[in-house]
Design brief:
heterodimer, A: 345 residues, mainly alpha, 2 domains, 18 helices, globular, B: mainly alpha
C-alpha cells in the first residue's frame, strides 16, 4: 500500500498578501468614484503617478540590494501605499509633489527597514507628512465639491492636467476663483475669528454632518471599510478604537461647549477619519498585534486626531496621529502581550 | 497654574527637547538599543534634569546675579550639573548596582548631555521663576524619557529587521529618529506663542 508523504501544511488557506492588498484596493473603488464625481479627475492622475513612482522605486531598491523584485511587487503592497497617499492629497497636485511623497514613502519608510513586514511607520502617512511639511501651500489648496449645490465652477480636465504637469494654473484661472478650503480648515479659520459653530455650519459649504460632497466621500470610504470587515481582511478592533477615540472626546467637548466645538458627527464625516479608521490605521505591519493592543492603538489615533484638530496648528491630524501611535506600537505590544496559558506570574 | 500646565505641554510635546530642539541626542542614540537601559537612563536623566534646573535657578538668582557674575553662568551651571550627576551616581550605585553596571559610562555622561545645560540656560533666557524652572526642567525630562523609551522599543524591533547593510545600526536609527521628529511636528501650534 502506497502512502503518499506530503509536507504540511495540508490545508492551504486561500488568503495571501496579494489577495488582502488587492481587496483593499478594490474596496476603495466606490470611494474613488464618488471622489472623482465631486472633485474632478485629479485623483486619478495622482494615483497614476504615485503608483508608477512607488513601483519604480521599489524595483530600484530591490535591484540595488540584489533581491528578486518580482516577488515583492506581486504582493501589491506598494500599490496600496501609493493609492492611500493619492487619496490623502488634494485633487489638484503637481506631479512632482506626488512623486516625492511616493518616493519617500517607499524608499525611506519601507524599503530601508527591509520592506513589507518590517516598517515601523505607515509608509503612506510618512510620505504624506513629509509633503505636508515641505509643500504646505500645495497641500492646502483644495477644491470645493461640484454637483453639491454649491456655486462653484467645475475645473475641467484641461486645467487639471495643466496644473498637474506644470505646477501652475493656466493663464486666466486663479486659485481665488476655483479653490476652496476643506470644511475642517474653514471651521478652524472661522473659530479663530470668534465665530460660533452654528454660524459656521449655516454656510453653504456644510452639509448634514461634514461638508457637502466630503461626507459622501466619507460614506463611500466607510462602505469599503465595512466590505473589508465582512471579507475578514481587517478586524473590528482598530476601526472601533479609532472611531471611539474620536467620538468620545468630541462628544464631551460638544456637550460642554457647543459654541466652539463641532458635533461628533462632523468629526466622524470630515477629513480623513473614515479613511484612517478602515484603511490607514489597519495596516497590519505598523499596527499593534493583540486585540487589546489594537483597541488602545486605535483609540490613541482617534484621541490624538481630536487633540490636533481642536488645538493644533493643522486642520486635520490623522496622519500625525497615525505616525505618533506607530511610534508607540512596540511599547503597546510589550504591555498587552497575551498571558501564556497556564503561566502564573 | 494654567501657565505651568502650558509649560508642561510645551516642553513634553510641542518643543520636545530631543525631537524638536535636537538637544540630548548623544544619550538618545547611545543608550536606546535596549529598553531596560533606556528606561534607566530616562529615570536618571529625569532626576538630574529636574534637580539641576531648580538648583541652577537658585545659583543664578542667589549667587551670580547679586555679585554681578553673570559671565560665569555657563561654568557655574556645568559645576551644578556635575555635582547633581555625582550625587545621582552615588544613589544609583547604592540603590541598584545592576542598573549602575548597565548604564556604565553613560551615567557620568549625563553631565555632558546638552539638554541638561540647555534647560538651565533656557530658563535664564526666558526669565522663568523658581516654580517655572522646576516645571520646565521636569517637562523637558518627561519629554526626553517618553521619546527615549518609545525609541528603544522601535530600535529593538528594527534590530531584527532585514535592513540593507549600509543602513544597519546608527544610520537606520537616525532615520527612525527623523521619522519620529516628523510625527512630532503634528503638535506644532498646540501652545500659542
Amino acid at each position: 500500500m502506497a502512502l503518499p508523504a506530503t509536507h504540511p501544511p495540508h490545508v492551504r488557506p486561500k488568503t495571501s498578501v496579494t489577495r488582502v492588498m488587492g481587496e483593499v484596493v478594490a474596496a476603495l473603488i466606490p470611494a474613488t468614484a464618488v471622489y472623482v464625481w465631486f472633485f474632478g479627475p485629479g485623483l486619478l492622475l495622482n494615483m497614476a503617478v504615485a503608483v508608477a513612482v512607488a513601483v519604480a522605486s521599489e524595483i530600484a531598491v530591490l535591484r540595488l540590494r540584489g533581491r528578486d523584485a518580482g516577488a515583492s511587487l506581486k504582493d501589491l503592497s506598494a500599490v496600496v501605499t501609493a493609492v492611500l497617499l493619492a487619496f490623502a492629497l488634494p485633487p489638484l497636485t503637481p506631479w512632482y509633489v506626488t512623486a516625492i511623497g511616493s518616493l519617500f514613502a517607499i524608499v525611506f519608510a519601507k524599503q530601508l527597514y527591509g520592506g513589507l513586514g518590517y516598517n515601523p511607520f505607515n509608509p503612506a502617512m510618512a510620505g504624506y507628512v513629509v509633503l505636508l511639511i515641505s509643500f504646505p501651500a500645495e497641500l492646502t489648496r483644495w477644491l470645493p465639491a461640484v454637483h453639491a449645490g454649491l456655486e462653484s465652477g467645475y475645473v475641467d480636465f484641461g486645467t487639471t492636467l495643466a496644473y498637474f504637469v506644470s505646477g501652475a494654473l493656466p493663464a486666466g484661472v486663479s486659485w481665488d476663483a476655483i479653490g476652496g478650503a476643506t470644511p475642517l480648515d474653514d471651521l478652524k479659520t472661522r473659530l479663530s475669528v470668534a465665530e460660533t459653530i452654528s454660524e459656521i455650519r449655516a454656510a453653504p459649504l456644510y452639509g448634514d454632518f461634514g461638508g457637502k460632497g466630503w461626507e459622501w466621500v466619507s460614506n463611500a470610504v466607510a462602505l469599503g471599510g465595512v466590505w473589508l470587515l465582512f471579507r475578514k481582511v481587517i478586524r473590528w478592533h482598530i476601526p472601533v478604537g479609532v472611531l471611539a477615540g474620536l467620538t468620545f472626546p468630541a462628544t464631551v467637548a460638544y456637550l460642554l461647549d457647543p459654541g466652539s466645538h463641532p458635533s461628533p458627527g462632523f468629526h466622524l464625516f470630515s477629513g480623513a477619519t473614515m479613511l484612517a479608521a478602515f484603511f490607514i490605521a489597519t495596516d497590519p505591519v505598523s499596527a499593534a498585534t493583540s486585540p487589546l493592543g489594537r483597541l488602545i492603538y486605535g483609540f490613541g489615533i482617534g484621541l490624538l486626531t481630536f487633540v490636533i484638530r481642536s488645538w493644533g496648528g493643522y486642520p486635520d491630524g490623522v496622519a500625525f496621529a497615525v505616525l505618533l501611535m506607530n511610534m508607540a506600537v512596540p511599547t503597546i505590544d510589550r504591555y498587552t502581550r497575551p498571558r501564556i496559558f497556564g503561566h502564573v506570574s | 497654574m494654567t501657565e505651568l500646565a502650558l509649560i508642561l505641554v510645551s516642553t513634553v510635546l510641542v518643543n520636545n527637547f530631543v525631537l524638536v530642539k535636537f538637544l540630548g541626542l548623544c544619550p538618545f542614540m547611545g543608550v536606546s538599543r535596549k529598553l531596560e537601559t533606556a528606561t534607566g537612563m530616562a529615570l536618571a536623566t529625569t532626576f538630574v534634569l529636574t534637580l539641576s534646573s531648580a538648583l541652577s535657578y537658585l545659583v543664578n538668582t542667589a549667587l551670580l546675579a547679586p555679585l554681578g557674575l553673570e559671565y560665569l553662568r555657563t561654568i557655574a551651571f556645568i559645576l551644578v550639573i556635575a555635582g547633581v550627576v555625582q550625587f545621582t551616581e552615588m544613589v544609583v550605585r547604592q540603590a541598584s548596582p545592576l542598573l549602575y553596571q548597565v548604564l556604565g559610562i553613560y551615567l557620568p555622561l549625563i553631565t555632558t548631555n546638552c539638554a541638561v545645560l540647555g534647560v538651565a540656560l533656557l530658563n535664564v533666557q526666558e526669565s522663568h521663576g523658581f516654580l517655572e524652572s522646576l516645571v520646565y526642567g521636569f517637562g523637558a525630562a518627561v519629554g526626553f524619557s517618553v521619546v527615549m523609551i518609545l525609541f528603544a522599543g522601535i530600535r529593538e524591533r528594527v534590530a531584527a529587521a532585514d535592513v540593507p547593510v549600509p543602513f544597519q545600526g546608527a544610520a537606520i536609527a537616525l532615520i527612525t529618529a527623523g521619522l519620529m521628529s516628523l510625527a512630532f511636528m503634528g503638535f506644532a501650534g498646540l501652545v500659542k506663542g
